[in-house]
Amino acid sequence: MPPNQTDRAATMTMAQLLNGAWIARVIHTAAELGIADHLGENPQDAISLADATTAHAPSLARLLRALAAVGVVHETEDRRYTLTPLGATLQSDRPGSMRGWARLILSEIDEFPWRALTDAVRTGDYAFERAFGTDAWTYRATHPEASKLFDEAMQSLTQSANAAVVTSYPFESFQWIVDIGGGNGALLLSILERHPAARGTVFELAHVIEHARERIAAAKVTDRCDAVEGDAMTTVLPRADAYLLKGVIHGRDDAEAVGIYRNCRSAMPAHAKLLIMERVLPERVDPDDPRSRANVLVDINMMLMSPGGRERTEIEHGQLLKQAGLQIERVVPTASPLAIIQAAPATP
User: What is the CATH number of the domain that holds 50?
Assistant: First the structure.
């Protein structure tokens, strides 16, 4: 190749990567319009879908063609459309639906901090605060629609992850499980459903705890599951057999993570386990490994959305746990992006 001449294949690959921003926007728009909810088994044309979604028919026809090009819908010879299995993931009522995530990822509360990525890398500033004048938690607490959208998106991601976690680890060895930062209790309730002899406690902040109590009552397990209000770093935890931290530590800086680990350690009997469910970054990135690639991108998202937030390697998790008097015993992979880091009180 002559000097300074760009490899054509590399140029095309870079174009595809950059065009991914357009593809994401097309899928986001489909999710916003609820197109997947209006497409059933019978093919529909753009005009009928425009009526159903209150869209401009000629513009929607062009959007549908783009969706067909990326495999979200199938286009028939007479230009009517049906959902593909990929497109079906955008249906609202489907278990593990990705519609919430598709709507969040290009909403202003996600997009504005990503626009500030260059400045964040240059300065180390917290991009969300730069965009909105406050942290993400405070913003969602004062903006109900943003909070609702965030919760829907998290539900999109957690359903399949919870199923993978529950089936990947032998929870039957625990009699009492405390889920710290357990949200609405979805993970703990899934574990209790699978292991009817176990007892559980959801431990959460005040503005979340009522959702957990409602869900526990709806599941009819109030006789062996409760919800307790408290702070993961300061409130005294009950003495249990296992403590769960799912998606909690990646939103904290190192000092806060160690504080949470120390609080857990102070409550743990000698036999107890701490199960940390997070994405575990590779020590060295493999560009051919989709999970490795996805995890480092999520790490960038955490940098923008949470002050001090980050994904960590196994070694980095181990270093923080050691400061709290804990040690990693093993790391259990799951069929989801999450791994289960099993930790226990460190031996003298």
Answer: 1.10.10.10
CATH number (domain holding residue 205): 3.40.50.150
Question: Which residues lie below 8 Å from residue 336, measured CB to CB, with a gap of 6+?
Answer: 160, 161, 163, 164, 165
Asked if residue 36 and residue 167 are part of one domain, the reply reads no
Cβ distance 252 to 308 under 8 Å?
Answer: yes
Q: Tell me: the pLDDT tens digits for 42-88?
A: 899 999 999 999 999 999 999 999 999 999 999 999 999 999 999 99
313 belongs to a structural domain:
yes
Q: Residue 82 falls within a domain, yes or no? A: yes
Residue 220 backbone class (left: φ over 0; alpha: ψ -120 to 50; beta: rest): left
Asked whether residue 190 falls in the same domain as residue 270, the answer is: yes
Q: How many domains does the chain have?
A: 2
- Residue-number span of the structural domain to which 251 is assigned: 154-285+304-345
Quick: pLDDT tens for 179-197. Answer: 999 988 999 999 999 999 9
Over residues 198-233, the pLDDT tens digits come to: 999 999 988 788 889 999 999 999 999 999 999 899
Q: Which of 28, 195, 250, 317 is catalytic?
A: 250
- Same domain (yes/no): 87, 178: no
pLDDT tens track for 210-219: 889 999 999 9
Q: Is the separation of the CB atoms in 99 and 106 below 8 Å? A: no
28 is catalytic: no
pLDDT at 91: 94
